[in-house]
Amino acid sequence: MRLNELKDIEGARKFRVRIGRGIGSGVGKQGGRGGKGQTARTGVAIGGFEGGQMPLHRRLPKRGFNKWRRKDYNEISLGALQKAVDEGKLKSGQDVSTQNLVEAGILRRSKDGLRLLGSGELKAKLSLTVNHATASAKAAVEKAGGSIKLIEKKILEADVAKAKKTAAKKAAKAGGAAPKPAAAPAAKAE
User: Fold this and answer.
1) For residues 145 and 139, is the Cβ–Cβ distance under 8 A?
2) For 146-178, how does the pLDDT look when each residue is reduced to its tens digit (9 = 90+)?
3) Shortest CA distance to 141 belongs to which of 97, 81, 85, 84?
4) How far apart are CA 83 and CA 141, in angstroms?
5) What distance lies between CA 186 and its chain's CA centroid?
6) The dihedral formed by the CA atoms of 181, 184, 185 and 187, expressed in degrees to the nearest 10
7) Would you state the pLDDT for residue 189?
8) Taking the CB of residue 132, how many other CB atoms lie within 10 A of it?
9) C-beta separation of 150 from 134 below 8 A
10) Cβ contact 143:128 at 8 Å
């Protein structure tokens, strides 16, 4: 064993590519940056600039909409609930909420609420407390002898007042209260 034979265990160190160290390295001369000019230098912030013509990101139309502060709901199907009952995680006749489903290990974590989907078949009688439920899910739960309690959204008084004002405006518009035409100017006597 000699000093020049000492080396790290394989995989202990990752060697970075050393650019500009000769033609044989594959990244010699200009170091992988192409020719000369702006992009060969550091501190380039072109950001979509296309020499003055309208850049692509401004030529293309805007599409879609991302709701601000959108809610992320847990979703569960009737089939998943029936499977949980069959496995003994839920009991028939039990009150089921997001908290119960998390404790039973059916959901990983509680999100902004619970949405019940109608896929699958439910035979067990369950009393569900959810934020949303599809029409088919409601019908299936009631057919099995269970019940669904929908969590009502808290509506602020300001929102209620605004909704009433908007409804009154729409009613006035629909009621035929058309604006009066302007009176014609009187002719001057000579």
Assistant:
1) no
2) 999 998 777 677 788 888 999 999 999 887 655
3) 81
4) 15
5) 63
6) -170
7) 56
8) 15
9) no
10) no
Low-confidence ranges of the chain (pLDDT < 50): none
Q: Give me the DSSP letters along 43-95.
A: S---TT-BTTBPPHHHHSPP-----TT----EEEEHHHHHHHHHTTSS-TT-E
pLDDT of 176 reads 61
**pLDDT at site 183:** 55
Q: Give the pLDDT score at 178.
A: 52
Identify residue 61 by its one-letter amino acid code: P
Q: Which of 155, 107, 150 is nearest to 132 (CA)?
A: 150
* CA pair distance 98, 115, nearest whole angstrom: 10
Tokens of 166: 């908007």
| Burial (Cβ within 10 Å: 0-12, 13-18, ≥19) of residue 58 | exposed
Other Cβ atoms within 10 Å of 114 Cβ, number: 23
The pLDDT assigned to 22 comes to: 93
pTM exceeds 0.70, yes or no: no
Other CB atoms within 10 Å distance of the CB of residue 141: 24
Residue entry with tokens 């992009």: 39
Instruction: Report helix, strand or coil for 103.
Output: helix
